[in-house]
Design goal:
Elements: H1 2-14, H2 18-26, E1 43-47, H3 59-67, E2 72-74, E3 76-79, E4 85-87, E5 110-114, E6 117-121, H4 129-132, H5 146-149, H6 160-174, E7 179-180, E8 183-184, H7 187-192, H8 198-207, E9 218-221, H9 225-233, E10 237-242, H10 250-255, H11 261-264, H12 267-273, E11 279-282, H13 302-308, E12 312-313, H14 341-350, E13 355-358, H15 361-367
Parallel strand pairs: 1-2, 1-13, 2-7, 3-8, 9-10, 10-11, 11-12
Antiparallel strand pairs: 3-4, 5-6
Helix pairs in contact: 1-3, 3-6, 14-15
Length: 372
């Protein structure tokens, strides 16, 4: 039965949801209030969809995450040459699509600087949406997730609007509200190309009825100034992401402030973040760092300091494979073997987190208390 359900989801997503989107109109469901996306604690945010089971940022991955009980799905947003928002973790395409095998696009390969790093490949900003739609998605980490790699070629790159349409359709059959948690990628880079995404993201949400702080939405970024800009044009909730402590948000590198993520993680830094954001998304090591032997250490005061500043805490990224887990939660020596992710998550729940990003949202749902 479970395999049949997953197959149905994948086929529906691969065919651009033609079945899912039409089905609710022909099915009569009782009119009952939808459950809030924020009713559970901690929130389970499906990181790039159910990316531990299906190639990331595909309608199949988002669909499966929702049926697994995720409260929110997380699309990373980049933009095309003709200004369409699409979901990819990076604007460079060869890691997660078959673009390198497409001779018609061979001349698009180039070298450019992204956020201070030289990157070689094919980039979304050099393609129209119609061209991107001819590409097919491949698994990002096939060595770790060979099962996902068997689905290479099954999915196309989804637009932001297609993801919203999927969420709204599945809300009807799930009888609950499902949140959307986009990350704006490479903001400074795209602004330099006259392809800013911030206003377009807010306007897309507005057109679809997502307005105000009560909407089931968080907009996230590793940069700072774009979040401050968003604070001035929308009441949708915002989340400040945190990279490694010694790193700087790239927009702060450009303007030369010297601000680091470590500065932003102090009590005073968190109070400053709370001026424009509702929540923070730290690497989970900010909350419980690892010891030299890769076991979990003692919790820091990050959660308490963030709560004191009025911020929710949604750390990333919880993954089930041994290669990503603390040593005490691994199973055997094989890096791609599945360990005890539920055990790791329970330790972080005890540390007081309010939400978490996971590639295996079903395990995160099982780790928290039953939520009705």
């Amino acid at each position: 039965m479970a395999k049949t359900l997953v197959t149905w989801i994948l086929l529906a997503a691969a065919s651009n949801l033609s079945f899912i989107l039409s089905a609710p109109a022909s099915i009569s469901l009782p009119l009952i209030p939808k459950k809030s996306a924020d009713r559970c604690n901690p929130l389970v945010i499906a990181h790039r969809g159910a990316s531990g089971y299906i190639p990331e940022h595909t309608l199949g991955a988002y669909s499966l995450a929702i049926t697994m009980g995720a409260d929110y799905v997380e699309p990373d947003l980049v933009i095309t040459r003709d200004k369409h928002l699409v979901s990819r973790h990076d604007n460079e395409l060869s890691i997660t699509t078959d673009v390198a095998q497409r001779p018609e696009f061979a001349s698009r390969k180039k070298t450019q600087e992204i956020d201070g790093h030289e990157v070689i490949g094919w980039f979304t900003e050099d393609f129209t949406l119609a061209e991107l739609k001819t590409l097919r998605v491949i698994e990002r980490i096939p060595e770790t997730r060979p099962g996902n790699a068997r689905m290479n070629g099954a999915f196309e790159i989804p637009t932001f609007q297609e993801i919203i349409d999927l969420v709204k359709s599945l809300e009807k059959s799930q009888r609950r509200t499902i949140g959307i948690y986009p990350e704006i990628k490479h903001s400074t880079h795209f602004q330099s190309l006259d392809l800013p995404m911030e206003t377009q993201v807010v306007e897309t949400f507005r057109k679809n009825g997502y307005i105000g702080a009560s909407a089931p939405v968080f907009i996230q970024s590793f940069e700072v100034n774009n979040l401050k800009y968003l604070k001035g044009i929308t009441n949708l909730r915002l989340l400040q992401l945190y990279d490694s402590p010694s790193a700087q948000p790239y927009d702060q590198v450009v303007v030369g402030t010297g601000l680091t993520y470590a500065d932003m993680a102090t009590p005073d830094g968190l109070k400053e973040v709370a001026r424009y954001a509702s929540a923070v998304g730290p690497d989970k090591n900010y909350i419980i760092p690892r010891n030299a032997d890769e076991t979990l250490g003692e919790p820091t005061t990050f959660v308490q300091d963030a709560h004191a500043a009025g911020l929710k805490v949604h750390p990333y990224t919880f993954r089930a494979e041994n290669t990503f887990l603390p040593a005490e939660f691994r199973s055997g020596d094989c890096p791609k073997a599945i360990g005890d992710l539920i055990g790791e998550i329970k330790v972080f729940i005890a540390a007081g987190i309010d939400g978490l990003f996971s590639d295996q949202p079903d395990k995160a749902v099982r780790a928290r208390e039953v939520c009705l």
